Amino acid sequence: MSTPYFDTPSMLEGLRRWVEIESPTHVPEAVNRMMDAAAVAYREAGARLERVPGRDGRGDHLIARSPWGDGEAGILVLSHLDTVHPIGFIERLPFRVEGDIAFGPGICDMKGGVYIAYEAFRRFLDGRKPPLSITHLIVSDEETGSATSRELIEQEGRRAKYVLVTEACRDGGKVVTARKGVGQFEMQIRGIASHSGSRPQDGRSAVRELAHQILELESMNDTRTGVSVTVGVVRGGTRPNVIPEQAHAEIDMRLPTLALAEELIPKVLAAKSHRDGVKVSVTGGLNRPPYEKTPKIAALFAHARKLAAEIGIDLQDVSTGGGSDGNFTAPFVPTLDGLGVEGQGAHTDQEQILISSLAPRAMLLFRLIETLS
């Protein structure tokens, strides 16, 4: 059977329809409209479908499976259709084309990647049968940490022989072979309130304690190891003339290896106050495990690089600090991320893709599915 042709104008038109269905994570009925559109496309193409009902204020998850290879370890294609832009943002950032650039909310992160995965998968639903079964898992809550989909992602990942993640590629078309793990924490501090003018000696400032804690947390940043710690949200106190009784911080931690996570996370959780009468408590932990470039992941990338060369792509790989759902599968199954379209401006009012990347990136996914065994 001949190699399929990926028609850029028709793919762009299909992607336009998906982009114009706004699907912010926190509006489950909107995400479900997007899942409906994907389900219709896959049903018409001949895939077997499963719909996992949403919970906890999140939308449904969709699983499209090939009609063959049931029960066998195959290829898991992993994507998400939730976006960060609120309902109505399409008025500020309407789908439009300027030369080789197409704009729209979620077009890069990651409706473009989901759409080319659908285009590649459906080519195998017309009579072609690759060595392995195909499962395309599309989740609804990646942008907020995948709380309702993590178990499903790990379950499907453990059934798979390979995982291909369709997050947007990095600068110049690079795929991702490593990502930092993500730690998320909340710190609560309780001091003792008092009048700042007449009885300051009776008080114990929670804000002062938080300042000490921030400096200790920020001191964990290490460019050599790649560890980064950011105290991104702080709140404290009630009025300027009251010694503050309470303070709060939200902390983001990025960790390139599991060894570093096991070393540093307990230190964050074990934070102690610097003054009697002040209590410090920290909750949280590792939201996404580190995605390390194992020998099997390196071999998967080498295979992808060879295929890419055949279609005129000089494929390079990169490690990144941003997390994705690939973090959940990489610790136990070869995972290749950043296989989506090329673009920039994700989460902004200039989110965009290169139209010329649609066909070659779809072809790369097709060839991976066709050749992995």
What class do helices, strands and sheet pairing give?
A: alpha+beta
Number of domains: 2
Continuous helix count: 10
Amino- and carboxy-terminal Cα gap: 19 Å
Helix content: 25-40%
- CATH topology category name of the largest domain: Aminopeptidase
Description:
This protein is of the alpha+beta class and 373 residues long. It has 2 domains: 253 residues, Zn peptidases (Aminopeptidase, 3-Layer(aba) Sandwich), CATH 3.40.630; 103 residues, Alpha-Beta Plaits. Helix content is 32%, strand content 25%. The protein is built from 10 helices and 18 strands. It has a 6-stranded mixed beta sheet with strand order 1-2-6-3-7-16, sandwiched between helices. A hairpin with a 2-residue loop joins strand 4 and strand 5. The longest helix is centred in the first third of the chain and has 18 residues. The protein is elongated, with a radius of gyration of 23 Å. The two termini are 19 Å apart. 45% of the residues are buried. The model has no long low-confidence stretch (mean pLDDT 97).
